[in-house]
Amino acid sequence: MTARSRAELNGARRVVVKVGSSSISGENAGKIDLLVDALAAAHARGTEVVLVSSGAIATGMPYLRLDERPTDLATQQAAAAVGQNVLVYRYQSALRAFGIVAGQVLLTAGDFEDPTHRSNARRAMERLLGLRILPIVNENDTVATHEIRFGDNDRLAALVARLIGADALVLLSDIACLYTRPPSEPGAQPIREIAYGDDLSQFQFGATVVNSVGTGGAATKASAARLAADGGVAALVTSIDLAADALAGADIGTWFAANPQPEVAAGTGSIPLDEAFDPAG
């Protein structure tokens, strides 16, 4: 059953947590330990946790002697191949202290479009969770092409949350919550709650950010949170620094209430890969 409030995250049955490249790579690589501490605490409470982690390309860049995110597909794929290995090793090294084993799950958009692939992906993650393994999900950047990519891992996380019928989706970034306009602009106000069906066109989330390590931004968070909510999965947007508080049910971040009567129940039926973000809700 979907979480009806932030407080219910503390005793949630199943939660999908997503973290972006900039939060766990470069000078922020040390925050992997902070994140793992939060995930392990939730795991110890009995919550089934799935982590959707960006960062493969960014993590692989130094090993390819690259200062900026490559623009050509072949080099992106090479960086992802190296970085995914290193990234999962870092997670497993941090998880070892808690006796938790990670399982790597790499997906492409085609895995959601094809009913057989989608069923296989769901079954694999259900089995991992049943065995108390912590699945670490990422897009399979080594084989994905520009034409078949999800667009960003916020969207992937929302699709995964719907696929497995999560109680909630927690989107972690570099800001504590969403704002009515970019927080650097005058008059920006924090957004505490977004009821299902609220008109989002009143907010100025800004364009998708493309930087040296990845893509994302407030707009992709809002889009993914609404996509999850449409499928009956509540969503919380907050900072990686507040991950432990978020999973413990603290009154923080921006809360997206779930659709009480989703047309497609979370975890069943088709997943709308081409569902575009409509700010008007």
UniProtKB/TrEMBL annotation:
EC annotation from Swiss-Prot or TrEMBL: 2.7.2.11
Domain Aspartate/glutamate/uridylate kinase: 14-237
Keyword terms: Amino-acid biosynthesis, ATP-binding, Cytoplasm, Kinase, Nucleotide-binding, Proline biosynthesis, Transferase
Catalytic activity line of the entry: L-glutamate + ATP = L-glutamyl 5-phosphate + ADP
Keyword Nucleotide-binding appears in the UniProt entry: yes
Subcellular location: Cytoplasm
Biological process, per Gene Ontology: L-proline biosynthetic process
A single MF term (Gene Ontology): ATP binding
Binding annotation for ATP: K18, S173, D174
Pathway: Amino-acid biosynthesis; L-proline biosynthesis; L-glutamate 5-semialdehyde from L-glutamate: step 1/2
GO CC, alphabetical: cytosol
Principal location listed in the UniProt entry: cytoplasm
Enzyme class (EC, first level): transferase
Binding site for substrate: S54, D141, N153
Matches recorded under Pfam families: AA_kinase (PF00696)
Family recorded in the similarity comment: Belongs to the glutamate 5-kinase family.
HAMAP family according to UniProt: ProB
Role summary: Catalyzes the transfer of a phosphate group to glutamate to form L-glutamate 5-phosphate.
PANTHER family documented for this protein: GLUTAMATE 5-KINASE (PTHR43654), ISOPENTENYL PHOSPHATE KINASE (PTHR43654:SF1)
Protein name (database record): Glutamate 5-kinase
Name of the gene encoding the protein in the UniProt record: proB
